[in-house]
């Protein structure tokens, strides 16, 4: 009898609880990490406006403003779980573009220089950050927001108004 209770606790309950908590954690972690990049760019706007690359026929300032907007707005959406799956697409695209335009160009200039293995290893670390964000955003896109999100509360409200009793437990 005790074996069944333990099995029920660890298998049935843990899946529901930890699955939603893990989605909440990865969503908030990715949102906060992405938000801090936007805040840094706003704080040092004059510096970044001079050195930010121009992309897609836009000036460097326009490109920087687009990146700041994506980093601030969509990271806040991710933190709160509002339009979560849609909110992962613009940051994912911006990180792929950052990997291609910014990091790949830096790696090409570094690879042309004569360097030793240690300095080359440290120069390659820049490429990890955009791809780590892309990985987190793909996970959030596939897994969804979970129950600890505005999306879940809105789905309860719009699907069936009689489910509002479930909101009392949240």
From TrEMBL:
Q: Does the keyword Transcription regulation apply?
A: no
Which lineage do the record's taxonomy fields give for this organism?
A: Bacteria, Pseudomonadati, Bacteroidota, Bacteroidia, Bacteroidales
Its source organism is Candidatus Limisoma intestinavium
Protein's name in the database:
DoxX family protein
Q: Which family does it belong to?
A: Belongs to the DoxX family.
* Entry's transmembrane regions: 21-42, 62-83, 125-144
Quote the subcellular location field of this record: Cell membrane
Q: Chief localization class?
A: membrane
What GO cellular-component annotations does this UniProt entry give?
plasma membrane
